What does this fold into?
Amino acid sequence: MKRLGRRQFTAGIGATLLASPLVRLLNGEAQAATPTTAKRLIVFFTPNGTVHKHWRPTGTETSFTFAAGSMLEPLNRLRGKLLVCDGLDFVGADNHDPGMTHMLTGSGTASSTTAGMSIDQYVASKLGQASRFKSLEFGVQTSLWGASKSTRMSYSAPGVFVSPEDVPLNAYQRLFGALGDTSTAAERLLRRRKSMLDVARTDLSALSTEAGTEDKLKLEQHIQALRQTEQALAAASTTACTPGQSPGVIDAKANANFPLVGKMQMDLLVNALACGMTRVASLQWSHTIAPQVFTWAGASEAHHELSHKVDSNTAGVASFVKCERWFAEQFAYLLDALQARPDLSSTTGGTMLDSTLVLWAKELGDSRLHTCRSVPFILAGGTGTPFRFGRYLRYTSTPHQKLLTSVCQGMGLTLDTFGDASRSTGPLSGLV
It folds into this structure.
């Protein structure tokens, strides 16, 4: 058949991005299966370890539940979106500060493949070049004690902290202040995406006139998919990329404002991702040895003090469990917010949660022992990632570097180990 010139066709940015599989098809090239990779990474941190018997699910790998009254019970309705990972160790690290240092770096040094960076910064260094922000760090009272190994989890190099923004208003102004009127910002984003689709549809329509019967049918189906995408963009434009109301001036350091600040930061984080400002974000709740008193959860002692109550102190342990249940509710809030947003970067629909990896990390295992053994990790996401969710995976003394490696691979990065290769190589088994 008579063909449009390849350069002429692919000159349209929309055709390049949205129709390249058909270009290969019409030129007789075989199409290899494209591995599914997540589009975004979120790291969610809560401090001071756990008490395993109140954290662990009951049941089997694929049929499990979070017991009534347990720390993770608020996540029961979201089990199908979770990978609960039990039995991961920080090799060669114990106690509060080493736990914070090694949690996301995998004990990497300047000479390691990941150059001592934390996983959020490493992924951002590889995937964030085209984003307005390589990464965004949101905090909730992380800097009451300044910047130190106790209060920082992100590293751009060994010993080089990446500090989170603790004040929602400051974060809002950094993200949206330069955009002017919020409706104008949303309209601009929508116009850019519609323009791309217009170019794609025009190029595909031109190619369709030159195609044979079978290829023409496939092109027409693709054009129809573009029309559906346009309709989805129009329907979602009012909610998917709007900054929302400014957080306003509040005392971000006040103990009583801890829940409010956290909610504001989660809303800003999701909005920033929905607007395509970054592909990598983190939310750090306080820091190891967290001094906050969770009065809103019925606690009367600091979170850190409660985390060290021994089993015989049933009232103290029960209070700590209540605090951890509250954190689980915040994790659920974040997942719900992602699930409620359409993924406008997708041509096949779905929500932002479907194509995002969310990693809930802690710096300790059993908080009473000050050890980094069997440190709790939870992954969340959906069908737009390579992992199979809805499972409880039990490991035995497995280096957590394997999980970090798997997360990077799940983001489409090629590496065999994360952090110190002498402590672990290869990905974590059972995720895919």
In short: Residues 1-32, 180-186, 231-239 have pLDDT under 50 and may be disordered.
